[in-house]
Amino acid sequence: MKIMVCGKGGAGKSSISVLAARVLSKTHKVYLIDSDESNTLLPKILDVEPPKAIVEYLGGKGTIFEKGEVNLAEALAKAGKGIRLDELPREYVSSSREGIRLLTIGKVREFGEGCACPFNFLLRTLLKNLELEEGEVVLVDTDAGIEHLGRGVEEGCEAVIAVADPTAESLELAKILKEYMAETEKTFWLVVNKTTPEIEDIINRKAGEMDLEILGTLRFDEKIFKSCLEGVRLEADEGYEDAEAILRRANLI
């Protein structure tokens, strides 16, 4: 299954992606794709060395649109078959101690190098042509916001996990994602992060008013907060328990 983890900046997409990957890695072969062109946190909290970007495998950012979708897919695949992530050279995949395999689409790192559109195009092509074997799961940690909707990146996935923090803006974004996923007949799950008992009733009320069904909530976990602040391997107590319960509710474990 191919699942995108979406939401506004700072909602906790990367930490939830890692928690979900850890839970799923107990029963599945998990690939985690970093498609955020600016954030560098994911390899740190997964506790791996950053892999080489897939965009480099294809000759660099400037060549992506030149290749076109068909040629791009062929360049990523072998002998005209669908794309298999386990066929990428080792330097483009980093593995965590749990066996989670991290891939990176690309990063914007130079002044004036242009927008991230080629990265979205690459990710869309990759997901659309990706072949998974039984027991394999792909999680995509997306960039902030909903620009990827305009690029049609979700076309290649089966489901979206919308991560919201306790803000009105975050729930508004989740509503847009839900409506888009309904149009494409793909699965939509809403997860609210960083909750406390004092605000959970407010969140549930606001979500109900917006016709949003919350799959589950992740309690504010001080260990997660500290790990992300220090930029080190993600540690969690309540957060891991909550992520496990949410994935079970979604019938993913």
Q: Can you walk me through this structure?
A:
The chain has one domain (2-249): P-loop containing nucleotide triphosphate hydrolases (Rossmann fold). β6 (159-164), α7 (168-184) and β7 form a beta-alpha-beta unit. The mean pLDDT is 92. The chain is globular, with a radius of gyration of 18 Å. The protein has helices at 13-24, 41-46, 54-57, 64-76, 117-129, 147-150, 168-184, 197-209, 222-230, 238-249; strands spanning 2-6, 29-34, 94-95, 101-104, 136-141, 159-164, 187-195, 214-219. It starts with a strand and ends with a helix. It has ten helices and eight strands. It has 253 residues and is α/β, with parallel strands linked by helices. It has an eight-stranded mixed β-sheet, with helices on both faces. The longest helix has 17 residues, at 168-184.
